[in-house]
Amino acid sequence: MALELHVWGPAFGLPSIDPECIAIVTYCQQVIPKGQWSLVASYDKSVGLTESLPLLFDGGIATATGYEDIVSYLRNHPAVSNDLDANLSTQQQIDRTAYSAFLRSAGTPLIDLSLFVSAENYNTTTSSAYTAILPWYANYTVPPKRRGLARTRTTHMGLDSLDVDTRTEEVSGPGRGTASAEFEAAKRAAGLPTDSKPSSMSIGRSRGFRGLLGTQKYAAKFRLDAVSNELLEPLSDLLGNNKYLLGTLQASSLDCLAFGYLALMLYPAVPQAWLKETISTKFSGLATYVQRLRKDVLSDEETGAAQVWAIATGRRSSAMEQPQRVLLPWRKRSQSFTSNAFTGVKEVIGSIPVISSLIKRELPIEPTPSSSRIRSKLPSQVFVNTLLGLTAAVAVGFASFAIQHRRSPREGELIFWALRPSVGLGDAGNIFNVLGQLPSGSFSQF
C-alpha cells in the first residue's frame, strides 16, 4: 500500500478537525481505488503559519503537503483512477482556482471565530475534541498554539468580544453564590424593589460588566452575519439549482474543498452556533448540498475518535468488544511505544523555558580560524552533565509511569481531561503538576 495520507484526527463525526484534511480525505475517497491508500490520524506539534498537515507519503517518502499540492500530485499518479477536474472547461478551471482561493481567505477566519476565538465554543467543544485525538502531553501545547494562531488571523476583524466567557463572571463574580445575593436576585426576578444599588456602568436593561459584554456580543452578531454573508452568498449564487458548484455531473476538487470548510461550520455542536444557524436558515441550499456530499462520499459515516484510536493502536477497550466496520481506510500507526514515550519526555523538557533555550542552542559547524582564545558561550561541562543526568532521571520516571498507564484498560471516548493549574514552569510545570494529581487511567495514548 504505497499511498499513506496523514491528517489531523477525527472530530464532530467528521474525518478530521481540520478543513483541508477533510477536503483531501473526501477527494482521495473518490479518486483512489480501495486498497491503494491508507489514512493515518496524526498531529503537528509545531503548528506554525504553514500547516504541515495533510501530508502525503508515497512509498514511505513525503511527497506533498496541503490540499492543492496533494491534488496536483495525485493527478499524475498511476494509482489514481479518476481525475475529478479532467472534464472541466477553461472557464470552469478558472472558476475552480478563483473560488478555491476565496474559500480559504473567507472560510478560514469564520472557522477560527467559531471554534477557537469564541471562548465558550473553545472551552466546551473544541478543546475536548482535541483531547480525544492528541497524546496527553500534546494537549498542553497544540490546542493553545492553534487558538493563538486563530486569534492572530482574526485580530483585524474587531470581534474580540467573542474571546470572553461570560459564564466566569456569572459564576465567580463579586458576591456571587451568597445567600444575600441570591435573595436580592429573587426579588429582582419578582419585580420587587431591592436594597442593592445600581452600578455606575449601566447599558440598556443589563447592568454592570455583564451588560457591557451582552452589548458587545449583540453588536458582534451583526458583524458576524456580515462576515458570514461575504462567504456564503457567493457560494450560494455559484451553486444555484445545480448539484455541484461548477454545474458539473460529478463533484470537482472545488466541491471537496467546499465540503471541508462548510462541514466544520455546520456539524460541530457548539453553544454559540451562529454560523450553523446562518447556513441552515438563510442558505438552506448550501446546507442540503453539504449533507448530500457527506452521504454520497462518506455514506453518512460518523467517524469517532475512539474507533480510530482502536484501529491506530490495534487494541480494543472493554467498551468496544466488537470491532466496528469503518468506511475510510484508517490504519495502525508505525510509531513505537518507546518512540512515543521519548517524544513525551522531549516535549516536557522542551516546555521548560530556561532548559528549552539551552537545548536549542546550536554548536558552530566549523571552527573559527583565530589565534586568540575564544570564550565559549555554551554552558559549562559540569552544568551540561548535571542537566543530562536530570533529563535521564525524568525520562526513566516518565517511561515507568507510561508503562503503568499503558497496562490500564481504556474506556470511553474521552481520553484525557484535566484542568491546567499554573506552577511557574510554563507548559512543563502544568504537566508535572497534573501528573502528581490525576489517578491511574486518566491519560491518553502514548
Report on this structure.
The protein is mainly alpha-helical and 446 residues long. The protein is built from 16 helices and six strands. It has helices spanning 19-31, 67-75, 90-117, 119-131, 142-154, 166-172, 179-190, 208-239, 253-266, 274-282, 284-298, 305-313, 337-350, 353-359, 381-406, 426-435; strands at residues 3-8, 37-42, 55-58, 61-65, 202-203, 206-207. The strands form two sheets. Strands 2-1-3-4 form a four-stranded mixed β-sheet. Helix 1 links the parallel strand 1 and strand 2 (37-42). Helix 3 packs across helix 5 (142-154). It is globular, with a radius of gyration of 26 Å. The two termini are 25 Å apart.
